[in-house]
Design goal:
The protein contains three helices and two strands, in the order H-E-H-E-H. The chain is mainly α. It has a two-stranded parallel ribbon with strand order 1-2.
């Protein structure tokens, strides 16, 4: 699994578009709590504490540790909508 600056760019672009309501909310899932925990801790300690983002912005994405957990997040997301369903 490749995770680099491009991944961070894509992550922040996607969650910014969702947060600013420029794009519809969709399941944004980060795999590996161990890998992403440092970034998430920094976001909480710096960005939220300095009021650059809202604590609710952390609800825009999910951090999971397995494909099964990711599928559960996706299923739960789409259960909220009667019209919108994944096409797979």
């Amino acid at each position: 699994m490749v995770k680099g600056l491009g991944t961070l760019d894509e992550l922040f672009e996607a969650i910014t578009l969702i947060e600013t309501q420029k794009f519809v909310h969709f399941p944004s899932i980060l795999i590996s709590t161990e890998y992403w925990s440092g970034l998430i801790d920094w976001i909480k300690k710096k960005m939220i504490n300095e009021r650059n983002i809202s604590p609710a912005d952390l609800d825009i994405f999910n951090v999971v540790d397995s494909a099964d957990e990711a599928v559960t997040v996706i299923d739960e997301f789409y259960k909220k909508y009667d019209i919108i369903k994944p096409n797979f």
